[in-house]
Amino acid sequence: MRLSELSQGSDAIVQEVENVSEGDPIARRLRDYGFVRGEPVRLVGRGPIGADPLLVQIGYTRFALRRAEAARVLVEGAA
Questions:
Q1: Best label site of 29, 58, 67, 79, fewest CB within 10 Å?
Q2: Is CATH 2.30.30.90 the classification given to domain 3-77?
Q3: Residue 4 backbone phi and psi in degrees, to 5
Q4: How crowded is the C-beta side of 43, counted as CA atoms within 13 Å?
Q5: Strand order in the sheet with 40-46
Q6: Residue 79 pLDDT > 70
Q7: pLDDT on residue 28
Q8: Counting beta carbons within 10 angstroms of the beta carbon of residue 3, is it exposed (0 to 12), middle (13 to 18) or buried (19 or more)?
Q9: What are residue 73's DSSP bridge partners?
Q10: Phi and psi dihedrals of 71, rounded to 5?
Q11: Within 10 Å of residue 7's Cβ, how many Cβ atoms?
C-alpha cells in the first residue's frame, strides 16, 4: 500500500521509497528525512481541498507532503 492511500489516523511501517525516475531527488529527500525501511509512520491529517497536502508523522517530526510525494512511499499496516 502507498502512504497516500493510508486512512487518516492509521499507523504503518515504511517498506521502501520508490524512485519515479533515475536519481529521483524527491525520493532521495524523503529518505534523508527518515522515510526508511522499518520506520513507523502515521497519517495525522489531510488537507481540506482534494485531501492535499497530507500531514505525516515519523517519530516526533511532522511533514506536510503532497499526495504525489506520499505515493512514492510504500508502507505496510502496523500490527
A1: 79
A2: yes
A3: -65, -20
A4: 27
A5: 61-65, 54-58, 40-46, 11-17, 73-77
A6: no
A7: 95
A8: buried
A9: 17
A10: -65, -20
A11: 9
Cα(34)–Cα(17) distance, integer angstroms: 10
- Strand, helix or coil at 73? strand
The CA-atom distances, in angstroms, between 76 and each of 28, 33, 63, 71 are 20, 19, 19, 13
C-alpha cell at position 46: 489531510
Task: Report the C-alpha gap between 59 and 48 in whole angstroms.
Answer: 24
Grouping H, G, I as helix, E, B as strand and the rest as coil, residue 54 is strand
pTM of the entire predicted model: 0.88
